Amino acid sequence: MQIREIDPARRPADLAAILPAARAVLGEQLGDFPALPASLLQLWCLPDWAGRSTVFAAFDSPEATVADGLSITEWDTDTNPELLSTCVWVAPHARRRGVGSALFERVLQLSTELGRPRVVTNAAATVPVDTLLTARGGRLVETVTRSVLDLRAVDRAAFELTARATPKNSRYQLVRWTDRCPEELLDAFCTAMDTMSDAPQGDMVYEHALNDRARLRGREEISIRSGVRRKVLAAVAPSGEIGGFTMFISPPDGPESLDIWDTGVPRDHRGLGLGLRLKAAQTLWMLDEFPAARAVQTFNNSDNHHMLAVNRALGYRAAEQWSWFEFDNSARRA
Q: pLDDT class for 333, splitting at 50, 70, 90?
């Protein structure tokens, strides 16, 4: 076995090398959800704005060009100075050969080299590795529920009714954009995005950096670079404040699947039904612009009862739970 550091974000051959293993693992974890698009995997391998990332791949031999497993590890440079976040995926055919252990050991080495002793990783309940991670010293810090909506079964008339303004929220105008936020809404959108910091996150200790123009524009450019389109729908008050927003992404090579990234309602605008109205209108946008899409998925902390209730009201079904585990690597020395 050989572990190599690769660069799938910039080298097509490296992206092709890990795509089969990534698709095989996510195929197990996400059930019948459409296959992972290459552009989305490329985006995951790109470092976030003010962040860094490293991808390791495990190959059966020095001559092999298709990986048996991979890890994607990322970290912030302006917040969370002790934290590394990673995923380790091993193709089904290569399991029980030490591939996962070798990849995770390389991540722990990186943790030591960078002086970041907290390492967090996740696992879906459909791949029963919780016991293994706990045995290795992992501590459960967060549980997340994946919810899926079958777009082919949507009752359009019912969603049109839900997307209408109510007496409580009629003063908000719904505004949509693709890729880049309009300049006149940029500051308001940064403020609204900060509401994500008060969403439930279990026992996970994570510092959310405040959003500003540079950070938002940088993240937009990262998505554009990979070809993944960001679709944002915002509820704008007469004052110019954004009272709520929801964002989904559409990969250019994944016409059958869509992902909701963020949905938030700032505290001063809650209790008005904006979350339900926004997500209903978002679904109609999906149906109009992406007629080939058959499903959309979203992830929420399992304690986020309000957003989970919104999803259920719209017909999302609970798929599986995901668990986040944290490892304390402070005992190791470089």
A: low
- To the question of domain 2-116 being in CATH 3.40.630.30, the answer is yes
Candidates 212, 210, 231, 229; CA nearest to 221 is 229
Instruction: Quote the mean pLDDT of the chain.
Output: 94
DSSP state of 314: T
Distance of alpha carbon 81 from alpha carbon 304, whole angstroms: 27
Short-list 235, 223, 242, 140, CA closest to 178: 223
Distance between CA atoms of residues 100 and 104, nearest Å = 6
pLDDT digit string, tens, across residues 15-52? 999 999 999 999 999 988 999 999 999 999 999 999 99
Is pLDDT above 60 for 302?
A: yes
Q: What is the pLDDT of residue 32?
A: 83
Choosing among 2.130.10.10, 2.70.70.10, 3.30.559.30, 3.40.630.30, the CATH entry for 147-320 is 3.40.630.30
- % pLDDT > 70, the chain: 99
Residue 6 contacts residue 18 (beta carbons within 8 Å): yes
Asked if the model's pLDDT at residue 132 lies above 80, the reply is: no
Residues in the chain: 334
Q: Residue 99 burial by CB count (10 A; 0-12/13-18/19+): exposed, middle or buried?
A: buried
Q: What is the pTM of this model?
A: 0.94
Query: What are the phi and psi torsion angles at 322 (to 5°)?
Result: -120, 140
What residues have CB less than 8 Å from 128, skipping those under 6 apart? none
Start-end ranges of CATH 3.40.630.30 in the chain?
2-116, 147-320
Cβ-based neighbours of 29, under 8 Å, separated by 6 or more: 124, 126, 127, 320
